[in-house]
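Form 12-C: Joint structure prediction
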Amino acid sequence: MQTVHLTSRNDFAEWRGVARRLLLEAVPPDEVIWVDPGAPQDLFGAEQSVGQVTGRKVGTVPQRFIDWAEAGICHSDPERFGLLYRLLWRLQKDKELMEVRSDPDVGKLDRRVSAVRRDAHKMKAFVRFKEIVDDSGRERFVAWFEPEHFVLERTAPFFARRFAGMLWGIVTPYRSAFWDGERLEFGDGGHKEDVPADDALDPVWKSYFAAIFNPARLKLAMMKSEMPVKYWRNLPEAELIPELIRGAKAAEEAMIERMASIPPSRHLKQMERAEPGLPVTEVFTSLAEVKAGVDACRRCPLYEMATQAVMGQGSASAELMFVGEQPGDQEDLSGKPFVGPAGKVFDAAMAEAGLDRERAYVTNAVKHFKFVPKGKKRLHQRPNAGEVKACSFWLGLEREMVKPTLIVAMGATAVSSLAGSTTTLGSVRGRVTVLADGTRMYATVHPSYLLRIPDREEAARERARFVEDLRGIKGAMGW
Amino acid sequence: MQLSLSRKLAILSDAAKYDASCASSGTVKRDSSRTGGIGSTEGSGICHSYAPDGRCISLLKVLLTNFCVYDCIYCVNRSSSNVQRARFSVEEVVKLTLDFYKRNYIEGLFLSSGIIRSPDYTMEEMVRVARTLRETHEFGGYIHLKVIPNAAPELLAEAGLWADRLSTNIELPTDVSLEALAPEKNPSAIRTAMAHIEGKREESRPDGKVAGKRKPTKLAPAGQSTQMIIGADRADDAVILRRSASLYSGYGLKRVYYSAFSPIPDSSSRLPLAPPPLLREHRLYQADWLMRFYGFGVEEIVSGGTDGLLDLKVDPKLAWALGNRGTFPMDVNRAPREMLLRVPGLGVRVVDRILAARRHHRLTLADVAAMAGSIGKVRPFIEAADWTPGGLTDDAGLRAKVVSKQLELF
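Section 2 - Result
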């Protein structure tokens, strides 16, 4: 039987040195007694302990074991050193052991590690610095904290990174840490009395704590699980909790009882001053009025999920009008028609055919984007006949305002909106037809169709045909 | 009359508490070791305290002012309300943030505001607070700014330059409700602000990818979030979740917060008298999680409830499983990840542990119990090396059994 006396409660390097020696000498775990360094030393405390092996590796372990051992050794469980050695011993035969969370030793260490990490996390949260005013005039801060495990050394570097420009110290019962603006140093443990009990700002913080609490939603179990009662004694705000809980019901009832009262005079003056927005017109006399109407449109349900209505773009005196299907994802986000992938195809084909988009009015048969959400993407959906019909009201107004001499219908949706649902794209494509009101229409495919053709050769053919149609349009305009 | 700082803070934080968000996570890592200032963000957020309402207190959540020219009926700060009004100066908020931060009370600032003068003026003041903290004081802590819809696009872009997170509240699930309860707000303008910010964030993203992950943007690295008020209108859970799904898909939102409508002092007679059960809000969060991390679609989730409302008695995943028992039991030693994620009681972490452990040996029910923590809810839906649920999966009384168990949770 071997007895180990470690000098530190949570020094992984020291434990590793001893464990390496034991492993070299093939001492099985049940023949080692690890004396708790935190316990009072008995009369035989000076007894010769097992030596360390440093700077020499005696075997291999998975990275997870190292990570867990570094954390687990900070646990307050007096058995932690033995548990780590037992795992180390077993790992020599079973390299995969750390993956088996259902193993009792692995499970036990897993829980120790979680507890340490949680305690360190709570320390980051619940340390409360008190300002010390001294003669130097420089502000200094100090905190008293009682961690459940030996986590000060693990956590102090976090405070050094966070409060680099501040002079601070944290005192715990077993050790203390100090930051002088450049170096982190550790010293002996201390007492609660070593640190001022109050800070000038504590009352302001408490007033915040009381005000941010909503008495209409009391959830004490949640509060206690996240802010365990053991930490309360060093939190200035915690002394308010019993009173806030007692008063919650009354505060909620008071909130409900204070029903609507007469508005303050400031409000009434504001109401008088308020300028009425653009009136909802029944008769439209300009594209700007049509846009206001489209923005407020409720003729079909598509407005609900779309970002915004996408009105046509271009001059009110344009002689040529392009009508597509509906805005896509990017058009919906930017509020402009034909700016997404299909818009790029459109622009390139227009340039190739020698047509200037600036001379045309470009719009869609439907003004809102229709889609189904799929995770972080929105999948385009073709508008149905009802939506096309509802929106033809606006397309009609755009036609009325712009009065183009030729309208280009791009794709089946535009064709059916302009020429009626019985007209197919195939039957009218590539030539001028005359609509019921006498306007000339030229039909072609929608540029997004070109993006959906999987076969490259066919895509190139179809694109050439689209450009050909655009040239035909140029001819029909006499440009 | 001059109000004391404490009194002002009480008024302006009381007015801010109806905003549920307090997250301080998900931003870029930074600390003050180079700047010599104060402040750091290291990935996961820290909750510095908890109020008796169970909500985390991570940020100093205040309004710059609770004066407001808008008259949104559900809001405690609406212009027709008689609550006491106050206003902080930019310098006061800056000092308070630094003083609180130095005492380790908070992770940073969440600044919102009533609308005074104009959306631009208000947004400019808020941006000034963030800019002063960052530029004058080298403040490296977390900053969340509320976006005022209709403010100039340049102001929104500048806000993103200083803030870790921006949020624009959608407020209500449907446009019709918003227009009825918040006459000055324009639902399309709110979504347009989100779209605009997302567009700017995309532009600011550095080129190239890091090990499969997208590089964080320079603008608002912790992304955008929004909040929806539950129970102030008649919208059911299906309508709410469809709205969330469309927001997540359209604007790259990090979070949608659900806030059960809470009675407010001096409230309008047009609002419901009683708040909805907090459990409804809780179920919506669970459903939201299922959408984002468990591969569930809105319609699947909603199918577990009745008439568009989620089942309050059981969580939405269990509700779905009870309605789709033909899919179960799932063999924990063979089922793919996406199917294991559908097993009630198995979370993402547990599923990943199961996948790692089963590479080494066949898992028994005890193994799963050790990893899952509790096994009662899981057992009827899985098969393990030494376990098959037999008739338990299709037991007509299964729902009753798990319901009595679930209620103990609350």
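Section 3 - Comments
The first helix of chain B runs from residue 5 to 14. The mean pLDDT of chain B is 90.
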